[in-house]
Amino acid sequence: MLDKDQIRSMIREDLVYAHRARGLNPNAPVIRGTAQNPDVYFQGRETVNPYYTAAPAMVQSIMDRFAELTGRQYRLFDYVGDDQAERIIVIMGSGGDTVSETVDYLRRQGERVGVLQVHLFRPFSLEHFLQVLPTSVKAMAVLDRCKEPGGSGEPLYQDVVTVLAEALAQGDINPSNYPRVIGGRYGLSSKEFTPAMVKAVFDELKKPKPKNHFTIGINDDVGHTSLDYDPDFNIESDAVVRAMFFGLGADGTVGANKNSIKISGEDPDFHAQGYFVYDSKKSGSQTISHLRFGPAPIRSPYLIQSANFIACHQYIFLDRTDMLRQAAPGAIFLLNAPHGKDAIWDQLPRSVQQR
Length: 355
Description:
The chain is of the alpha/beta class. 32% of the residues lie in helices and 20% in strands. The chain has helices at residues 4-9, 13-21, 41-46, 49-70, 95-108, 126-132, 155-170, 195-205, 253-265, 344-347, 350-354; strands at 77-81, 87-92, 113-118, 139-144, 180-185, 214-215, 241-248, 271-277, 286-294, 307-312, 327-335. Helix 5 crosses helix 8.
């Protein structure tokens, strides 16, 4: 964790005071938000351009300063993958970790793929984008976590297409190296985004005519925009303990698991992660806790697909939920049951016995 001295060294006190001085104060009244007539408004609106032009380089300089203090290097655009990648995904936000994790796995299988993660969306810097874009790329998919009804594409997709078109016009890209670009949507309302879906996007890029403006993670039987993916595709390491706990809202399952995460995470050589699924009703509804533990940093911002430990804290769930659907081969199933060890097997539903 960052200590207070590191945080303080990143903040200039004179800029803090200047920021506070610009705040609204009855002792120093000012007028803001006035109407302007056409004779000056256009000119005044354009005066912001130099500030937006300078912003990317300033942000990068602060990122470099942060790297000197902490050893953590951030860039406006980070590229991870094969230096001679032919297919890449452009994405921003937590979905980038899922793509990076999948890229590492696919590269071990011999595929030339990569991911370009966006850290500064606005202002979008053409210069910094082209610096990290491999010249070997033949096809790229730009993933947006939003929907622009009626638009020619989502915001990030439109920016990438515009940047490439301008770079081509300026001669920064050889026409023979101009990549095919498609856009897609994922993860709206926290819909799951898994490595299986990432692989489906990379597979789509292999096609001579990949689907543009696609969706991934849903079954769109109206507009037929969705890509098919293999839900059984799994890349999680066996070195990571993956546990799922099924409980009832207010029975203590979620609270106990949060404490388990905190206790395990106190060991600096041990990494832990917890995701908790419950609806707005909370008390009285089903909760599912997804816990991961392992010796290496965990870059899996999605729910567990293959658990090697599953616990059921409410016996009534056996007839209502297929809890063993995510069980890995040889997984342990812990059941809180009212029957003894000699009688419990005959009480289990046939589907559970067959698992």
